[in-house]
Specification:
The complex is a heterodimer of chains A (270) and B (271).
Chain A: E1 7-8, E2 16-18, E3 20-28, E4 34-36, E5 46-53, H1 76-79, E6 81-86, E7 92-98, E8 103-104, E9 116-120, E10 127-130, E11 138-147, E12 159-160, E13 162-168, E14 174-178, H2 179-183, E15 192-199, E16 211-216, E17 221-226, E18 236-241, E19 249-253, E20 263-269
Chain B: E1 7-14, E2 20-22, E3 33-40, E4 64-69, E5 77-81, H1 82-85, E6 86-87, E7 90-91, E8 96-106, E9 120-127, E10 142-150, E11 155-157, E12 168-173, E13 195-201, E14 204-211, E15 238-241, E16 262-270
The chains are: A mainly beta (270), B mainly beta (271).
């Protein structure tokens, strides 16, 4: 059988491959000095990496569930927060690892590809803590990348097979749009390799799309990945992701006076 | 992606209102393969490791560099604007053994020569140092640990770190934290600019006068530096704080200096 024509997609170096993503809401306060990574989804799973997502120095994007704004970045230095991660065998993977090097904010040009773990961890003994003196509560979104099976290993290519671009125009600042409504059946049973987001209006400006993609798949779960992360120049690969369009959503969560921006959802698939 | 390196030397190049300024010979670089070169200006550090003011960043595009390759004696890197060597942390990969003393900067394009008079340029050469490098397998497991340096004066030696003894370090980052794991207070980001660290192994200063600010990643300003599995003799390694005696306030009330405050270095270790 003749191999399909390959379309090349201009991209820079691959930074990461995501198989699954678990979102843990983290809250540190004067009364709560530790947040454990105790989500049962992560038990006995190989943890790839940890990232913290936070809005920039003003209210931009809301929490996908509470519709409230997570805490701002500028106050995190006072927090002086650290990760302590223990492997499932009891060895220390990370001792007092500062979390400001794993932060991502809308508008950042790159991801700080800092906290690669790639091991089973003890979720009951692994936690985030802080050493600063605080009087307020700080809440943010902690993303744990994890595996449920071996990576397929064939995503490490820069060439794309097929590309589908869909326009998305939310009608409300807080809105959940099923992907079925946007995409129809065009991507049913297709393996998604890369997802990118590009604003339609004024593409020369660095307009951020303040929303999340909540993707459920065959054996994959990408729990509310922030759309700004898919707007970077670098490609973020997904590992053999077949999206269940009926149970996956674009969640618009625009804060304050920020405008609704139309954008293109671009899927690169096999 | 920037290349792995195992040696780095930082020099202060004194500028003068002449058309060309030549580098002096750097003994540590003789026969060594240079991978990247950084040119730092006042946007990165305001005072160099020798204590001289650093040239304004406004001139970075007006100055070009020419480097002679050591074996061919040819100017194989010719008239390159300084900003090209390191463009938002995308560093030009040079991979050459250089004849430094035949290499020079061309300052003829600087419109106002008074902006370079009595200033210096900080130049960092990243190179391969076989005496300290180790094989790094990206498939190996990694772990993270840290060491804290509490500033004691102009020169502060690192303390013994049993947890990091003989561990192969593949990156060092300096976070922006006000409270160390020990509870000690951390330096404000602006105070990190004029600090230079020297790492030693077997009495060899393989990372010499390296600006600490390049280990920070705040606001994505500096990308992660990739070390080739270096190990550190902590007791012989030290930090130079060129403006340790400056007094300043961080709360608007109390005058403090750097002395007694700490810098945290977070190490990624290859198992």
């Amino acid at each position: 059988m003749k191999k399909p024509a390959v379309l090349s997609f201009q991209s820079k170096n691959i930074y990461m491959i995501i198989q699954n993503l678990c979102l843990i809401k983290a809250e540190l306060s004067p009364d709560n000095r530790r947040v454990y990574l105790k989500n049962e989804i992560l038990r006995d799973k190989k943890i790839n990496r940890i990232q913290i997502f936070t809005p920039a120095n003003n209210a931009t994007i809301l929490d996908p569930d509470t519709n409230l704004s997570p805490s701002f970045i500028s106050s995190f230095s006072d927090l002086s927060a650290y990760f302590n991660i223990v492997s499932s065998t009891g060895t220390v993977i990370a001792k007092d690892k500062p979390f400001d090097n794993v932060l991502y904010r809308p508008g950042d040009k790159t991801l700080l590809h800092e906290f690669e773990i790639n091991q089973l961890i003890d979720i009951d003994q692994s936690y985030l803590t802080y050493n600063g003196t605080i009087t307020l509560t700080y809440d943010f979104l902690m993303y744990i990348h994890y595996q449920t099976e071996n990576l397929t290993g064939d995503n490490n290519e820069n060439e794309a097979s097929n590309i589908l671009s869909i326009n998305c125009v939310p009608t409300s600042k807080i809105q959940d749009i099923p992907l079925r409504n946007l995409i129809g059946t065009q991507l049913d049973d297709k393996k998604i390799k890369i997802i990118k987001i590009k604003p339609i209006t004024n593409p020369l400006q660095n307009d951020q799309i303040y929303g999340y993609l909540d993707l459920n798949g065959n054996t994959r779960k990408i729990n509310n990945i922030p759309c700004p992360m898919l707007q970077l120049d670098e490609d973020i690969y997904f590992d053999n992701l077949i999206i269940d369009m009926d149970h996956s959503y674009y969640r618009s969560r625009i804060a304050g006076l920020n405008l609704i921006i139309a954008f293109k959802l671009i899927f690169i698939y096999e | 992606m920037n290349k792995l390196f195992s040696g780095a030397i930082c020099i202060e190049l004194a500028l003068k209102p002449a058309a060309k300024v030549y580098f002096s010979e750097i003994p540590q670089l003789i026969g060594k393969r240079v991978k990247h070169i950084d040119f730092l200006t006042s946007g990165d550090c305001t005072i160099g490791p020798e204590g001289n003011p650093v040239m304004t960043y406004l001139n970075k595009n007006n100055i070009t560099a020419t480097f002679v390759e050591s074996y061919t004696k040819k100017e194989l890197i010719k008239n390159v604007p300084l900003s090209v060597f390191n463009n938002n942390s995308n560093r030009l990969y040079l991979n050459k053994v250089l004849e430094i003393q035949s290499s020079y900067l061309d300052l003829s394009g600087v419109p106002d020569k008074s902006t370079i008079t009595n200033t210096s340029l900080i130049v960092i050469f990243y190179y391969d140092e076989p005496r300290v490098w180790n094989f790094v397998d990206t498939h190996d497991l990694t772990s993270f640990d840290n060491f804290e340096l509490k500033i004691a004066g102009r020169k502060t030696f690192l303390s013994t770190q049993l947890n990091l003894k003989d561990k192969k370090i593949t990156s060092l980052t300096v976070p922006f934290v006000f409270a160390m794991p020990s509870g000690n207070s951390g330096l404000n980001y602006t105070r990190l600019k004029n600090k230079y660290i020297t790492l030693v192994k077997n009495n060899h200063e393989y990372i010499k006068d390296f600006p600490v600010v390049l280990f920070t990643q705040i606001y994505n300003q500096y990308s992660k530096l990739r070390l080739q599995g270096i190990t550190i003799d902590f007791e012989n390694s030290y930090l130079i704080d060129v403006d340790y005696a400056d007094t300043y306030t961080i709360d608007g009330i109390n005058q403090i200096t750097d002395i007694g405050q700490s810098i945290l270095f977070n190490a990624q270790i290859n198992k």
